[in-house]
Write a structure and sequence with these properties.
single chain, alpha+beta, 7-stranded antiparallel beta sheet, globular
């Protein structure tokens, strides 16, 4: 499989996990809005909850959140809860995910290479750069909906 396809699969896995964790937090704390908007008010900004026979440590901070599963997997991203594309990926944060999972053959990927692949995915309407010159990209929800329903 080509690297670009591996990266797409990694993004799909990342987003599915992130959304499942967000759903778990929403149900656990009986939230109405996106967890990012209610962290620190309706539930703690930092904590730990059960998740799929593991524990997950969560931390809401600045522009995003970090989830660390008990097996060491790190899911760290920025959030745009009022946009249609809620999950924002950066090269550094996404590389942390790749480095902590055994699912993908991308362990030698550099941040520069990853951003190059993100730019290809932007031309394919899978990602959208948030600010020119920065390596932060929104995951296009329309693409995601078609992928998740077919996976």
């Amino acid at each position: 499989m080509e690297k670009i396809e591996l990266i797409k699969d990694a993004i799909i896995t990342f987003v599915k996990l992130a959304k499942r964790i967000e759903d778990t937090i929403t149900k656990r704390f009986d939230l109405v809005q996106h967890p990012y908007l209610e962290a620190g008010r309706k539930f703690p900004k930092k904590g730990e909850i059960p998740f799929n026979r593991q524990k997950i440590e969560f931390r809401y901070h600045g522009a995003g959140n970090t989830f660390i599963l008990s097996d060491g997997l790190i899911i760290d991203y920025d959030v745009a809860p009022l946009n249609k594309n809620t999950i924002k990926l950066s090269g550094w944060k996404f590389l942390r995910f790749i480095e902590t999972t055994q699912l993908f053959e991308l362990s030698n990927l550099t941040r520069t290479e990853l951003i190059g692949y993100f730019e290809i995915l932007e031309r394919q309407n899978i990602l959208k750069r948030t600010i020119k010159g920065y390596d932060v990209f929104e995951v296009e929800e329309e693409w995601l909906k078609t992928i998740i329903t077919n996976h």
